[in-house]
Sequence to fold (247 residues):
Amino acid sequence: MICPLSTGILIFVLGAVFGSFFNVCIYRIPKKKSLISPRSFCPKCQKTIPFYDNIPIISYIILKGKCRFCDESIGLRYPIVELLSSIVFILCFLKFGMHLSLLVYLVLFSICIIISFIDLDTGTIPDVLTIPGIILGISLSLFTKYIPFIKSLIGFVVGAGILLLVTILWKLLFKKEAMGGGDIKLLGMMGAFVGPVYVLFILFTGSLLGVIFGLVTRNRKLRFGPFLSMSLFLILFFGDKLLKLFS
Ligand SMILES: [Zn+2]
Fold:
């Protein structure tokens, strides 16, 4: 019998290890650099980070957030992404259990974590993540039972279509861009994974979160990617309760 606690710990560690790789993706994908080589190095002193200083979360605490060689500060962002990934992995495990759908949603959330932080940094969402994500979402529906193929396809069309329509209308009315093409593809990708009904809820909740955050912080230049991702999380975890309210 598998002990739930040891499985939980294993998934937490796995989340942190993947989180460490997501950090590499977040840093290197916008710069179009290889994800594999060179190994991680300090951007100031250029020294390769030894494996014992590259343990997710723990190394940051041991090194007190500084490079071992030159004392350059390591961004708090690195352990945050690692911890966030661990938490998301654990919550997905608790929600979906040891099932094939767990793998599907872990892939989806992993892409969304990387996209959210790249969007925060650069204001763009790279096609190299969304387009394979769309293809993956639709093709996984063919091989697994997490969503029927047709629902996945319609989810993609609804997600991407509705934002495309908003963008076109906005441009006609206000002669300004409402959002980037990246957001359109991101919502299309989410639609391919969750289907047409949930994707509409994701758009609604994501927009609402964005508006509230914008009003509270008076920030007018919001990135939509992180809000859509947060919304995806909320809808996947609590959407069934929400749907019951409407039925
Ligand atoms: Zn250094």
